[in-house]
């Protein structure tokens, strides 16, 4: 496996890759309804794509208020530090733009991953798209 590279993505220009990853992870794998996956915030969000070579294997988005979401890594690339590289890039970008507090709605099964990146749980468990989630927050150290 080559090194994972993360770059800023553009919703219109990179739409096919962003959709391919999110559809594979959220819609096909996790059975999220398409009408819940796509929202009006995509057009204004800052998007990120993680690549192995020239193949996009992960994505995330950052909203103007510091909300991180739609974090998705294709199944075959999980456990290979793609998620870490992706979130490190999102956090760095957020902090460079004055967003010193980042928050996200994490699937409960992924909380340990986010805790390693400095996030802490700040809510009880709730269902989002039928999947157990918790709210998490990260403050710039």
From TrEMBL:
<protein>
    <submittedName>
        <fullName>Predicted N-acyltransferase, GNAT family</fullName>
    </submittedName>
</protein>
<dbReference type="InterPro" id="IPR050832">
    <property type="entry name" value="Bact_Acetyltransf"/>
</dbReference>
<keyword id="KW-0808">Transferase</keyword>
<dbReference type="InterPro" id="IPR016181">
    <property type="entry name" value="Acyl_CoA_acyltransferase"/>
</dbReference>
<dbReference type="InterPro" id="IPR000182">
    <property type="entry name" value="GNAT_dom"/>
</dbReference>
<feature type="domain" description="N-acetyltransferase">
    <location>
        <begin position="4"/>
        <end position="141"/>
    </location>
</feature>
<keyword id="KW-0012">Acyltransferase</keyword>
<dbReference type="Pfam" id="PF13673">
    <property type="entry name" value="Acetyltransf_10"/>
</dbReference>
């Amino acid at each position: 496996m080559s090194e994972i590279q993360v770059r800023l993505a553009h919703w219109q220009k990179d739409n096919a890759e962003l959709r391919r990853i999110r559809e594979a992870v959220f819609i096909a794998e996790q059975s999220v309804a398409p009408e819940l996956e796509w929202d009006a915030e995509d057009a204004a969000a800052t998007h990120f794509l993680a690549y192995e070579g020239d193949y996009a294997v992960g994505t995330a988005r950052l909203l103007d208020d510091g909300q991180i979401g739609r974090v998705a890594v294709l199944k075959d690339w999980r456990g290979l530090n793609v998620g870490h590289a992706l979130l490190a890039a999102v956090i760095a970008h957020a902090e460079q733009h004055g967003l010193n507090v980042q928050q996200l709605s994490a699937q409960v099964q992924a909380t340990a991953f986010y805790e390693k990146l400095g996030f802490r749980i700040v809510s009880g468990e709730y269902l989002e798209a039928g999947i157990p989630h918790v709210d998490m927050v990260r403050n710039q150290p």
